[in-house]
Amino acid sequence: MARLGLPTVFGVLLALHTATSTKLVCHMTNWAQYRPASGKFTADHIDPFLCTHVVYALATINSFNTLIPTEWNDEDQYKMLNNLKDINPLLKTLLSVGGSTNGISPFIGMVSKPENRAVFMKSAISFLRTNNFDGLNLDWEFPGQSGSMGSDKDRFSDLVAELDEAFVQEAKDTRKTQLLLTANVAAFLPIINRAYDVPKIAPHLDFINVMTYDYHGHWEARTSHNSPLFKSSIDSGSQLQHNINSSISHWLSLGAPADKLLLGFSTYGRTYSLRGSDSTLGALSTGAGEAGPYTRTAGLWSYYEVCSFINGASVNWIPEQKVPYATNGVVWVGYDNVQSFAAKVEWMNSKSLGGAHVWTLDLDDFSGVFCSEGAYPLVTNLRNSMGFPPKPTAPPRPTTTKDPIVSFCAGRPDGLYENVADKTTYLQCFNGITYVQRCQPGLIYYDACKCCNYP
Ligand SMILES: *[C@@H]1O[C@H](CO)[C@@H](O)[C@H](O)[C@H]1NC(C)=O
């Protein structure tokens, strides 16, 4: 696909990393705004420097095959989200389209005829441009599943190829940066096989979010982890494939390029009510644990609800799966923490995957009020363990201040500049605003290459 490279500023920074994992794609949901009190999350809670991409979930498709918002205030939230690009010009935003009506995906009718697909593509491009998004995220769960026919595997391939062609053409016509095209895809092997013609879709997608979570939950009779890295010795039959290693290995064996696959990281856990006194992995369960006070969904807790619970609970590590669970009384929760994220990052790097995607920002302790680990403890740690440079801190807008750093960029062209006061940092100017960026530990900034390097 025809595409401009990443902006040089970013390229220079990334050249200092050895890992190929260069994307940190974070999802947010437009239903998180309805959680009470400190659980309420809107797009203005997003840290513009935390992720490389933010995906806004969720838009949908109406019966006229047109892309439409799903919430009364979506357009306000789109503005909040896309205004973050004024603060971090490297941030990319995508709109996710999916959902279902009575369990039926709106993609089914839309892909069924070339004319319907053409209407959708036209509406999607116009909607994305009007609202200042950088791309589209297809969230059809799943072709060939839940009322979708086997032939939808080919219809999905057609849709992806046609969208790519339309995005290339639109970028040529308007001389704008081409819109990104991405998809959220299944992690279960039988669903992958039914849903995707991988060699046909992969070349047209910028990245592929493999939803490597929800492997296990209260719908099963025994406790097991939501998002294990490997199989456990108590797994049998098809359960042997319910883990990250099996899913990603399968995507790779079907021909997906490693650098387009993004590993899914969950900022939530799945809970069970224990049947008896056994509280180990594989203990008998009677069903979902009680709903959390903020997410209010039986069987699922946000990380910030988990972290209140583990205070006083017994916390255990599953060595063969590299993930933790916690238990107290009849409650059992399998969740992710800094250690399991680090183990997954190490594995992700060993497979040279393109990066990580996170479901979701709003389920992490986004404000830091619950866990006392700072804001976004899981995603911040993920970012750090992926080797991204520390986040820049945006100084206040250069209004009346006389601070020489804050006003440095006033009247200067966009670009990178030396910070004579501190060589371990440098100054990035964008639209007259100064951003102080920090080199990786041990490196200093050289203006000759506009890069950080060893002293
Ligand atoms: C990871 O998956 C591959 C492919 O299925 C398999 O051969 C390998 O044994 C798995 N590794 C572990 C530690 O389970």
Automatic annotation (TrEMBL):
Q: Organism's domain of life? A: Eukaryota
Instruction: Give the EC number(s) listed in the UniProt record.
Output: 3.2.1.14
May I ask which residue range the UniProt record assigns to the signal sequence? Answer: 1-21
Q: Name one GO biological process term.
A: polysaccharide catabolic process
Record keywords: Carbohydrate metabolism, Chitin degradation, Chitin-binding, Disulfide bond, Glycosidase, Hydrolase, Polysaccharide degradation, Signal
Task: Show the InterPro entries listed in the entry.
Answer: Chitin-bd_dom (IPR002557), Chitin-bd_dom_sf (IPR036508), Chitinase_II/V-like_cat (IPR011583), Chitinase_insertion_sf (IPR029070), GH (IPR017853), Glyco_hydro18_cat (IPR001223), Glyco_hydro_18_chit_AS (IPR001579), Glycosyl_Hydrlase_18 (IPR050314)
Task: Write down the top EC class of this protein.
Answer: hydrolase
Does this UniProt record's set of keywords contain Disulfide bond?
yes
Per UniProt, residues of the GH18 domain are: 22-389
| Sequence ranges assigned to domain Chitin-binding type-2 in this UniProt record | 406-455
Question: What is any one of the record's Gene Ontology cellular component terms?
Answer: extracellular region
**Catalytic reaction list:** Random endo-hydrolysis of N-acetyl-beta-D-glucosaminide (1->4)-beta-linkages in chitin and chitodextrins
What would you give as a GO molecular function for this chain, any one? chitin binding
Q: Which PANTHER family match?
A: CHITINASE
What's this protein's family per the entry?
Answer: Belongs to the glycosyl hydrolase 18 family. Chitinase class II subfamily.
List the protein's name: chitinase
Species of origin reads Gadus morhua
